[in-house]
C-alpha cells in the first residue's frame, strides 16, 4: 500500500520550501495544500494545534510539525534514496548545528532588513552579510556544505536564497559582490531539479513581498 503524504504549506514560506526540496530529493509524490494563513483551515488547526503553523507533513494520517524535524523525518523514513544527513554521528551533529544557525540567524535578520530603514537597516545589513560570510567560510571550497553531495545544510539554506532578490532590492546591496562563493554554490544547487522545481519564481516572490509591506504598513 502506497504512503499517503500531504503537505500543508504556504508557497512563499522558506520553511515550507525546505520540506518541498527534501520530498523532491527523495522522489516522493504528495498532495500539496496551500494554506491561507489569514484564515487557517480546519485541517491545519487539527494537525498542528500547538503552534497552528505551516509546514505540516501528514504521513498516513499522522502529522509531523516544524520544518527541520520534518526534513529529518523524511530522511529517516525514506533513507534508501538521496540521504540528506551524514551517517557519521559527529558530521550529522555539525549539519544540525548549521541548519539551526541558519534558521535562527538568517530568518530574523532577513525580517529586520526589510522592516527597518536608515542607520538601523545598515546595521542589520552588515550583520546579515557577516552571517553569510561565516556560512561561506564553512562551505569553503566544497561543492556542497556536506562535501560532494547535496545534503541537509544545503536543503535548509537554499530557501533563504530564493528570497535573496527581495532582500537585495529592499536593502540595496549585492550578495554576489560580498559572497561570490555562496552565489556559485546557490547556482550549483539550482541546477538540481529537486531545488529548481521547489522554489517559487523570484518575481512572484517580490510581488508578494510588496503586498507584505502593505499589510505591515511599511512604505
UniProtKB/TrEMBL annotation:
It is an enzyme of class 2 (transferase). Belongs to the GST superfamily. One of its GO terms (molecular function) is glutathione transferase activity. This is glutathione transferase. Its EC number is 2.5.1.18. The keyword Transferase applies. Transmembrane segments: none annotated. One of its GO terms (cellular component) is cytoplasm. Residues 88-208 form the GST C-terminal domain. Residues 3-82 form the GST N-terminal domain. InterPro entries: Glutathione-S-Trfase_C-like, Glutathione-S-Trfase_C_sf, Glutathione_S-Trfase, Glutathione_S-Trfase_N, GST_C, GST_C_Tau, Omega/Tau-like, Thioredoxin-like_sf. It holds the Pfam family GST_N. SUPFAM superfamilies: GST C-terminal domain-like, Thioredoxin-like. GO terms for biological process: glutathione metabolic process. It catalyses: RX + glutathione = an S-substituted glutathione + a halide anion + H(+). It comes from Vitis vinifera.
Amino acid at each position: 500500500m502506497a504512503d499517503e503524504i500531504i503537505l500543508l504549506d504556504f508557497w512563499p514560506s522558506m520553511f515550507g520550501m525546505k520540506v518541498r526540496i527534501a520530498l523532491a530529493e527523495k522522489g516522493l509524490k504528495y498532495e500539496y495544500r496551500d494554506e491561507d494563513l489569514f484564515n487557517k483551515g480546519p485541517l491545519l488547526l487539527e494537525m498542528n494545534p500547538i503552534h497552528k503553523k505551516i509546514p505540516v507533513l501528514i504521513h498516513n494520517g499522522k502529522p509531523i510539525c516544524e520544518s527541520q524535524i520534518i526534513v529529518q523525518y523524511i530522511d529517516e523514513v525514506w533513507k534508501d534514496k538521496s540521504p540528506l544527513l551524514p551517517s557519521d554521528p559527529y558530521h550529522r551533529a555539525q549539519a544540525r548545528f548549521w541548519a539551526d544557525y541558519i534558521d535562527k540567524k538568517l530568518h530574523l535578520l532577513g525580517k529586520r532588513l526589510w522592516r527597518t530603514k536608515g542607520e538601523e537597516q545598515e546595521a542589520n545589513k552588515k550583520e546579515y552579510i557577516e552571517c553569510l560570510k561565516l556560512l561561506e567560510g564553512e562551505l569553503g571550497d566544497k561543492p556542497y556544505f556536506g562535501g560532494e553531495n547535496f545534503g541537509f545544510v544545503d536543503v535548509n539554506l537554499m530557501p533563504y536564497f530564493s528570497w535573496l532578490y527581495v532582500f537585495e532590492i529592499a536593502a540595496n546591496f549585492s550578495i554576489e559582490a560580498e559572497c561570490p562563493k555562496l552565489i556559485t554554490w546557490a547556482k550549483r544547487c539550482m541546477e538540481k531539479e529537486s531545488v529548481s522545481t521547489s522554489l517559487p519564481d523570484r518575481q512572484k516572490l517580490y510581488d508578494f513581498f510588496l503586498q507584505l509591506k502593505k499589510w505591515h504598513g511599511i512604505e
